Predict the structure.
Amino acid sequence: MFVQCCVCKRIRTDGKYRLPWPGELSGEIAETYCPRCARETLRLIQTGELAAIADRRAARRA
Ligand SMILES: [Zn+2]
């Protein structure tokens, strides 16, 4: 089973994240955040930027 970052799409192998080779991904894939994207996402949440992005998306739909 692969563990893949849902933001940058890198996969975890031997405790490290790297981009998968073409055709490498198959079977079950668990989505997670790699440490880099987790930090970035946390920063967006803490600064309120993530909420601002969601608000803009909602406004576009309205
Ligand atoms: Zn990532």
In short: Residues 27 and 50 are 31 Å apart (CA to CA).
